[in-house]
Amino acid sequence: MLTYLIMIFLLIIFLISILFNIKIGKRDDIFTSYDTKILKGIFCLIIILVHIPNNYQNNIQDLVGSFAYIGVTFFFLSSAYGLKYGVENKKDYLKKFWPQRLPKLLVPMFLINIVSVIVSSINHKKIFLIDLIDINDWVLVLLFFYLIFYIVYKLKIYETSKDKIVILIIIICSFISKLTPYKILIRWHTESIGFIYGILLYNYLKKCQIWFNKNYKIKLLITLIISLLLGILYLKFKPVYFFGDYLLKILLSFFLLILLLEVIMKVKLGNKALEFLGNISYEIYLFQYVSFKILGSLNVKFNSGIYIFLVIFITIIFSIIINKLSIILINKVRLIPNENSNDRTKKNPVP
Question: What distances in angstroms separate CA 99 from CA 95, 203, 333, 337, 346, one per listed residue?
Answer without folding.
Answer: 9, 26, 11, 10, 21
